[in-house]
């Protein structure tokens, strides 16, 4: 009796294994079959981006795909320049190092063109005009702009121009550095800090998404421009990106993508 029972158990386990193995293998060939046969292989463009920066680059909660203004723009640039896009998500403060180590061919990540960065990477022509803004809790009536931040606790994303600005605005030990901008904004919501310094369009989008307990105060600081970064001296890649960007601005595709994400004509 016991032997029979043991045998039955083993049989059930073996069957389970077979079923799960079939389940795994079964779906793969189907997916591969969906891809068109590659005849003339295009050169690959490996692009790094920190995909936690809506509406520029973020994960679509419904599909799990990367979406945003930068994502559409770099796809259009790759199509125009004849590249096959390989889009990779990575931490913002690792992008410059990844470019320097030639691990990626380009970075598009709402990255501000700054003189310091331009020493170590090359930038495309600017593709978006931006600036920094202070965000505080909606109930805060104390902080009205950059000038009220002395001695206040500020959350920022590591390696950003917002972080550099925070270092000018308050004492270093009052700054909390996060890997993602979302984390910095959540820290503000939770009352862990008094303010967040971040790119205006991103903090504005965050509030628009239903975070009414946060507000923006004061003026937008210093005009910033975003550029696509490439490793220093990669002139061929840079020229192709610039030529494609120019074409997209001329043929209306750039304006179409801009309107899709910002609901207005390009500035
Ligand atoms: N524009 C700012 C900078 O260049 C912030 C960019 C952050 N981008 C991102 N995808 N997290 O420093």
UniProtKB/TrEMBL annotation:
Residues spanning the signal sequence: 1-21
Major localization class: other
Record flagged with keyword Ribonucleoprotein: no
Gene Ontology MF term list: ligand-gated monoatomic ion channel activity
Domain Ionotropic glutamate receptor C-terminal: 44-264
Keywords: Signal
InterPro entries: Iontro_rcpt_C, SBP_3_CS, Solute-binding_3/MltF_N
Domain Solute-binding protein family 3/N-terminal: start-end pairs: 44-265
Subcellular localization, as worded in the UniProt entry: Cell envelope
Cellular component annotations (GO), alphabetically ordered: cell envelope; membrane
PANTHER family hit by this protein: ARGININE-BINDING EXTRACELLULAR PROTEIN ARTP, MEMBRANE-BOUND LYTIC MUREIN TRANSGLYCOSYLASE F
Family as reported in the entry's similarity comment: Belongs to the bacterial solute-binding protein 3 family.
This protein's name: Amino acid ABC transporter substrate-binding protein, PAAT family
